[in-house]
Amino acid sequence: MLHILNQQNTVLNKFIAEIRDKNIQKDSMRFRRNLERIGEITAYEISKTLDYSTRTVETPLGEADVNVIDNQIVIATILRAGLPYHQGFLNYFDDAQNAFVSAYRKSTKDGKFTVKVEYISCGNLEGKTLLLVDPMLATGSSLVLAYEALVERGGEPAHTHIASVIASEQGVDYALRNLPQNSTTIWCAAVDEELTSRSYIVPGIGDAGDLAFGEKL
Question: pTM for the complete prediction?
Answer without folding.
Answer: 0.91
